[in-house]
Amino acid sequence: GFPKGSVQVTLRNNLTESLFLLYVEGAPEAIEVPIPPGTVRTVTVENVADFGDGVLQQFVLFQTDQKNWVNSAVTVDVRPNTTTAASADFLINNENSFTTNRYGVNFPSWQRDGQAVAFTFGGTTARQIAANPTVAQPSTKLFPEGSIFASRAELSPVDEQVLLYSYPQIGLGTEGDAASVNPILNLSGTLFGMDWLVDGSGLVGGENLGLGETHANLWRYTFGASEVINLTNFDDENRGYAADPGVSPDGTEIVYIYAPTSDAAAELQIMDIDGGNVRSLGVSGLYPDWGMPSQVVQPTPTPSATATGAPRPTPTPLPTLDPAEVADTIYLPVVQR
């Protein structure tokens, strides 16, 4: 394990709240810290892992997963077997509060060479990190010079372009160039998954539709086209949910989740890229993915994968989960036929 040290930080409470939880990056757990309004308290946290000489570790104060405080100017370079003071006092005020119900990392997307993974942080910011990061290696923004908000980001399989989703629009831009981002689609429903076509010419998407999200469909879109091509055709009368598509490495098939109702268990299905030849994989699952680029093993047929007479493509959103474009857990089952 890592060598351990102690950390000392001074907290200045400028709010009316009085009870907080303090976490130091590398600590085994958060500690409870009562601080009366308008007062100052110095706190020592024990057994904090030292991630290395010169590695600056962060502090977070929180009350719930929807209310927390972050101050990037307050860091500490932990030293083994000694107590190290934080770089500055931590001010608790409204200016450094971070209030959200989307706290966390969601929707990973492989860089085309498999060396990095993009994701969204806090449901608003597109970032990426090395596929095999060093200890405490920071992630970086996909668009460091601009304010680009996205609840989902997908890296192109062929170049530096990025697909971005921020309700109700899907945008397209070049990584690192905020000025290049422009909307390409305006959705009538809520996006439930998207993936690139393998040649970079467009995308497939899943969309929750209907008043109260009564159904979900899959569609395919080629850049510059006047409209999307529906791959499934569920509606208020013919209900079903098909969503979260993933395009196969050879570009000929789409794996996705399907459920007949919003409260039914989802199963994995596969269709041809044009929406035909729908069949079941014979397993339940969520968030399917074909694997890391350049290391994908093509699936081979197995007798256990029985075909179903599912209607012509009809996508459906996550049956048993909240269909919001945020998830705390990502499941990546191996796709086999």
Summarize, please.
The chain has 337 residues and is an all-beta fold. It has strands at residues 4-13, 19-24, 31-34, 40-49, 57-64, 67-76, 83-85, 90-92, 97-98, 105-110, 116-121, 125-130, 140-141, 152-155, 161-166, 169-174, 177-186, 190-196, 202-209, 215-222, 229-230, 241-247, 253-259, 267-272, 279-284.
Strand content: over 45%
Low-confidence stretches: 297-337
Question: Major sheet, described briefly?
Answer: 5 strands, antiparallel
Instruction: Write out the CATH superfamily name of the largest domain.
Output: YVTN repeat-like/Quinoprotein amine dehydrogenase
Distance between the termini: 42 Å
Instruction: Give me the strand/helix succession.
Output: EEEEEEEEEEEEEEEEEEEEEEEEE
Counting DSSP H or I runs of 4 or more residues, the number of helices is: 0
* Structural class computed from helices and strand pairing: mainly beta
Mean pLDDT: 85
Sum up the overall morphology in one term: elongated
* CATH secondary-structure class of the largest domain: Mainly Beta
Count of all domains: 2
The largest sheet has its strands arranged as 3-2-5-6-9
What is the CATH architecture descriptor of the largest domain?
7 Propeller
Number of strands: 25
Which short descriptors sum up this protein?
single chain; 337 residues; mainly beta; Methylamine Dehydrogenase, Chain H; 5-stranded antiparallel beta sheet; disordered C terminus
